[in-house]
Automatic annotation (TrEMBL):
This is Sugar ABC transporter substrate-binding protein. Its main location: membrane. Residues 108-189 form the SLBB domain. The lineage of its organism: Bacteria, Pseudomonadati, Pseudomonadota, Betaproteobacteria, Burkholderiales. Gene3D superfamilies: Outer membrane lipoprotein wza domain like, wza like domain. Residues 27-101 form the Polysaccharide export protein N-terminal domain. Belongs to the BexD/CtrA/VexA family. Pfam families: Poly_export (PF02563), SLBB_2 (PF22461). It comes from Comamonas faecalis. Residues 1-23 form the signal peptide. It is a multi-pass membrane protein. Keywords: Cell outer membrane, Ion transport, Lipoprotein, Membrane, Palmitate, Polysaccharide transport, Porin, Signal, Sugar transport, Transmembrane, Transmembrane beta strand, Transport. It is found in: Cell outer membrane.
Amino acid sequence: MKKLFLHTLSALLLVGASTATLAADAQDGQAYQLRPADRLQVSVWREDALQREVRVLPDGSITMPLIGRLVVAGLGTEAVQEQMVERLKPYMPDPIVTVTVAGTDGNSVYVIGKVLKPGLVPLLTDNTTALQALSLVGGLDRFADGNAIRVLRSDGGKQVLLPVRYNDLIKGDSLQTNIQLQAGDTVLVP
């Protein structure tokens, strides 16, 4: 009986320690930053009229009744919740607001040119590379110039072209050209 108790206690301590580690990691990690085209689910407790899905507009804002226009691009959901609570306080005592990300449509890149399925590619992780995006569109067609691929990126208001040497990459060469993509990039495949 004593042995069973010790095993159970050890297991509980391990679970508690790993839960604490995961919570600390989540707090240390940076929250997802909202972008234009993202979808948010907003709800205010006990206010059915204030429960809706909204899309972040190209200017980075959303609009809600009583709250008005609120710029949310670059913020996390907790910061948006806090701003909404402050704007609702004149209309209701102690508003409880929940904001969740319903869709990360703004976190995507475009792949155009000689690929099998050109179009919008969602960035499913924060470290998606050019090769991964090209695989998501089915790869290159047979007439594509693999070593002439470029990524068009906006950098501080100006456009920058970054080379991707696909043919070399699949041979294990020019690994530095397998760049990490950012939301809004356009992969050009001639």
